[in-house]
Amino acid sequence: MKILQNPPHFLLSTAIHHPSSNSLKRSLCWQVLLLVVAAVIFSGCTSSSQDLDSAQADRPPNIVFIFADDLGYGDLGCYGATDIKTPHIDQLAQQGIRFTDFYSVSPVCTPSRYGLLTGRYPVRDGVHRGVFFPESWTGMDTAEITLAQVLQQRGYATGIIGKWHLGHHRQYLPLQRGFDYYFGIPYSNDMEAVVYLRGNEVVDEAVDQRQNVKTYTQEALQFIEAHQEEPFFLYLPHAMPHVPIYASEEFQGTSQRGLYGDVIQEMDWSVGQIVSKLQALGLEENTMLVFTSDNGPWRTMIELGGSPGKLRAGKQTTFEGGMRVPCLVQWKAGIKPGQVIEGMHNMMDWFPTLAHLAGGQLPTDRPIDGEDISAVLQQGGKRKGQQLAYYSIYTGDLAAFRSGDWKLKLPMERPYGGRYGFEGEEAHGMLLFNLKEDPGEQQNLAEKHPEKVAQLQKEIEAFKASLGVLPPPKKMKEPADRSHEEYLKKKYGSS
Ligand code: MG
């Protein structure tokens, strides 16, 4: 018997009635009848949809968090793409929320995932300067508390299927970080030694990446099926569309944007499969589905990378294309359909938000930089804080800062791009943009509005001071020692 927290309206309405004696008897009969009906409905004896709904209402929402890798702001139908069809992902927007100004906290994979899973700026663990490699001996600090740990403590079944990329030595792997289940490639799919792990063990050393989206989808469906009777958190960080990109035979040639579009269409199919499974199991109503990306598109990969749409540049840069990402949320039991939310929100917000919705406990011994946006999801509006710091992956320094509509991009000495003839970004001086009027960052207003530059510089100083003492950046990997080759080249010449 489920505990009825909020009695239905028809029970409340009988309790406040004051009829005459005959009608009182009739009313009592009705009350008895209604109570019997209510008891049957809420006893867990039937399998009607009302019963499933009430059973779901008694437990916190399931969470399915789908994380694309290097998907651009302009790569989905609901964000304006016309050459890639994404009906299932677009459906999430129709049935829930589409964010216009949602940010990753880094323009590359590792720090972005750190921000999502801890709710903290990656600079707090020194993981903001690049990504981990199979050569990395370190990982996300084991003292960090992950979203999976918070949900696991709350009784959630926690699974990750896909890319981890927060350290691949045993102590850093998902099973030691709050996940009950892991299957996937532990880092990027362009790195040496692409393997599938199951739990802590390598189970496949010959990964066929053409089948990757299908394989992960199959695993995801099995996880949902296996945990349908309990609250679950399924984190699905796809390897795609990070290069090298692959689609299965069924999806090759199906889009109007070459192989890249085919890959996105297969990922869209995957979303459709997950939604269908949730529907079939009667779980769709009380499952929060999030679809977003870890960072912007890898523009220097030309047609093998995605599109930032109206935004400037892409992955690895602190222009908008690097860090502003698509983000869609569907949760039928909790949020209204068809909303477009424009305020600034970011990946760190999921940690306190999902912890709150699950009834979990946030750590109190460390700063959490994300903000609980559950009220935004459920009632609209926007997050209180409207600021974001952007960090360079090359220098590790704060490189840009957005406050409201204004963004200050600090001088950048190093040009970006240039590979394969791709026109990248030149080194630049101080840049000031009004993103509301100029989301493409084309009009530098620094000279016209020196007072805004000064104001944002002050905000940057205050923000940096608020972080306190920080650890040094972690060494992601060291260059190999080639001194023997230098010696031989010098002595015998290069052949
Ligand atoms: Mg990425």
Biggest beta sheet summary: 10 strands, mixed
Given helix and strand content, the structural type is alpha/beta
* Name of the CATH homologous superfamily of the largest domain: Alkaline Phosphatase, subunit A
Terminus-to-terminus distance: 80 Å
Helix content: 25-40%
Arithmetic mean of pLDDT? 90
Overall radius of gyration: 25 Å
Count of DSSP H/I helices: 13
Choose one word for the global shape. Answer: globular
Major sheet: arrangement of strands: 6-5-4-3-7-1-8-9-2-10
Strand coverage percent: 15-25%
| Integer tally of domains | 2
Pattern of helices and strands = HHHEHEHHEEEEHEHEHEEHHEEEEHH
CATH topology annotation of the largest domain: Alkaline Phosphatase, subunit A
CATH class category name of the largest domain:
Alpha Beta
Bound ions, cofactors and other small molecules, one mention each: magnesium ion
Count of DSSP strands = 14
What is the CATH-assigned architecture of the largest domain?
3-Layer(aba) Sandwich
Q: Segments where pLDDT lies below 50 for 5+ residues?
A: 1-25, 36-55
